[in-house]
Amino acid sequence: MTTAEFIAACVWPSILASALALLKARNTAAFPFVGKIVLALGLTYIGLLRFYDKSSIIAVNDVHVGLVVLGLIIVGSQLRQPPLYGSWRDQAKAFASMILIVLLGSGLAWYAGRMLFLDHLTSRPCDRRPCRSCVEVR
């Protein structure tokens, strides 16, 4: 396992541990300290992703899964909107922005999910000279 694969494999357990630590320390005096640790960990992963994003298939999958989750969070953020008040123009502006945000989140989730689907669940012909696995399949 290379360094890039190790870092990529540790992303989701780190996110889960960070979320649990923030939830446990939410109403305590340790929250600012835990928040700084989680922020430093997140910034470290973002920095390392810049260097290792193309060198590991796990990192590529992490980016796609992260984009799907981000898209679904963007779509879900519109579920908690307060009722619309004001003139019909104000209501139309708020409703239009809500539709655009939902479309943005849906498009992001669809794009990243489609890339995951194409990478893992579709077969591709071999473009190179026949290798051992291609010969065995035929």
Characterise this structure.
The mean pLDDT is 82. The protein has helices at 3-9, 11-24, 31-52, 57-76, 88-120, 132-137. Helix 1 (3-9) packs parallel to helix 4, helix 2 runs antiparallel to helix 3 (31-52) and helix 4 (57-76) packs antiparallel against helix 5. Helix content is 74%, strand content 0%. It is mostly helical and 138 residues long. The chain contains 6 helices and no strands.
Count the helices. How many? Answer: 6
Summarize the amount of helix as a percent range.
over 70%
Oligomer: single chain
Rounded radius of gyration (Å): 21 Å
Low-confidence regions = none
Structural class: mainly alpha
Main β sheet profile: none
Q: Any idea what the shape is?
A: flat
Keywords:
138 residues; mainly alpha; 6 helices; flat
Question: What can be said about this structure in brief?
Answer:
The protein has 6 helices and no strands.
Describe the secondary structure blueprint for this structure.
Elements: H1 3-9, H2 11-24, H3 31-52, H4 57-76, H5 88-120, H6 132-137
Helix pairs in contact: 1-4, 2-3, 4-5
